[in-house]
Amino acid sequence: MDAPHSSGAAEHGPVTASHSLTVTSPAAMGDLGRALAKLLRPGDLVMLTGELGAGKTTLTRGLGEGLGVRGAVTSPTFVIARVHPPLGDGPALVHVDAYRLGGGLDEMEDLDLDVSLPESVIVVEWGDGKVEELSEDRLHVVIDRATGDTDDDVRTVRLSGIGTRWADADLAGLGG
Q1: Which of 3, 102, 144, 176 has the most CB atoms within 10 Å of its CB?
Q2: What is the pLDDT of residue 7?
Q3: Secondary structure (3-state) at 7
Q4: What span, in angstroms and rounded, lies between the C-alpha atoms of 25 and 43?
Q5: How many CB atoms are closer than 10 A to CB 88?
Q6: Taking the chain (176 residues) in consecutive chunks of 10 residues, what is each chunk's mean pLDDT?
Q7: For residues 33 and 61, is the Cβ–Cβ distance under 8 A?
Q8: Three-state secondary structure call for residue 67
Q9: Residue whose C-alpha is closest to residue 161's, from 40, 4, 38
Q10: Burial class of residue 150 (count of CB atoms within 10 Å of its CB; 0-12, 13-18, 19+)
C-alpha cells in the first residue's frame, strides 16, 4: 500500500534555515531527535515527512527523551494524537499522526492543536498539506530512505526551518 507521501512538498513559506545530514541507524535517528529537542521551545510546530518505516516515530521518541516528557513515545496511528506532559519545566510534546486524516485543516481543527500550540511542541507525522496553516513558523523534516525490499538503515534527513522563528537556528550544529 502506498502511503500519502510527498517529500518534495511545497514548503508554504520562506525557508530561513536548512540542513541535510545522513543518519546511519535507528539509534542515530534517536540521537538526532535528542539533539533537535535542544533547539525546540514552546510553540514550535514540527512536520515530519517520510515513507512508512523511514524513522519518523524513532525521531519523535528521541525528541520526547530530549524534551523530558512523560510516557513512552509510540506511533499514535490509531489514536491520532497523544499528549506527553513534561516531567519538569519544559513544554509538553503533542505527537500527531495525520496519516488517516483525509481532510486538511478542518479535520486537524477537531484536535484543537491551535489551543495546544503556544505551550507545547507539536510534532505531526504525515502533515503535508494538512497543518501548514497552524503556524507561519515551523520546522519541516523530510526523511528519505531506500525503498523496496531492503534492510538498509541509512537515511537522508533534510531539515527546513520556515519563517522568522528559524532564521537564527543552528540546524548545521545537529551534525552532518
Answers
A1: 144
A2: 42
A3: coil
A4: 29
A5: 8
A6: 41 81 95 96 94 93 96 78 89 86 56 66 87 88 81 90 93 86
A7: yes
A8: helix
A9: 40
A10: exposed
Number of helices (H), then strands (E), belonging to the chain: the values are: 4, 7
Joined grid coordinates for residue 78: 490509531
Question: Which grid cell sits at 48?
Answer: 515530519
AA identity, residue 158: R
d(CA 167, CA 176): 19
- 54 in Cβ contact with 155 (< 8 Å): yes
Beta carbons of 13 and 140 less than 8 angstroms apart: no
Looking up cell 505527537, which residue turns up?
95
Which amino acid does the sequence have at 47?
A: M
Question: Residues 42, 87: contact at Cβ < 8 Å?
Answer: no
Q: Can you give the length of the chain in residues?
A: 176
